[in-house]
Amino acid sequence: MTVRVLVASNNAKKLKELQQVLDDCGIDGVELVALGDVEPYPEPKEDGLTFEANALIKARAGVAATGLPCVADDSGLAIAALNGMPGVLSARWSGHAGQHGAEDTDTANNNLLLAQMADIAQRDAAFVSCCALVTPQGEEFTAEGRWEGSLLEAPKGEHGFGYDPIFQPADTPGRSSAQLTPEEKNARSHRGTALRALAPHIAALRS
Ligand code: ITT
């Protein structure tokens, strides 16, 4: 029997990464369903103060609307010199979603962050992701991943999305996360780590 699992993200590039990581886990008998494949439902308000709280808000909303088990990711960039900000505010650092188009929002977020950090030499940064799985029976599982690195002085690279052009991973010296192939990024990223930790719980949905 195949189990359908909703992957609840409105960010097409994030969704692709989530799907690729899960596909690479090779879980037989699980069919991933995107938001575009189900009856539309209102986006829940992401008003949690942690990545975990927001990931659970998104996954619970997916289950409530569709009756399917649901996986969601909440993620962002944590800058040490900014006490972990933008953090859970990463998506709306330069203003509310809808104010710009998706690509413009990314550019506006990156430009604002670079301007705020212009005179600051301490540039330690980490991408953080919390992935949540919620089942129709009310079981909840979460897992977190961190990708350590630093904030660049200027954007470079064309791959990925969001803050990738201004993030220098510690484990890919000389290449920003926007200069990695999808496979290279998924193998190291916050999202890859979090979702692979959740994979056994997703696989267990079949039994
Ligand atoms: P969904 O909530 O619909 O999944 P979203 O893009 O709004 O989509 P978040 O609320 O989790 O997702 O916000 C994540 C923010 O952090 C957003 O600004 C992203 O661009 C950024 N971000 C997260 N992971 C990233 C990554 O792997 N590379 C670059 N930026 C990332």
From TrEMBL:
Active-site residue numbers: 74 (proton acceptor)
Organism: Corynebacterium lipophilum
Keyword line: Hydrolase, Magnesium, Metal-binding, Nucleotide metabolism, Nucleotide-binding
Family: Belongs to the HAM1 NTPase family.
Binding-site residues for Mg(2+), renumbered to this chain: 74
Biological process per Gene Ontology, one example term: nucleotide metabolic process
Positions annotated to bind substrate: 9-14, 75, 161-164, 185, 190-191
Enzyme Commission identifier(s): 3.6.1.66
Protein name: dITP/XTP pyrophosphatase
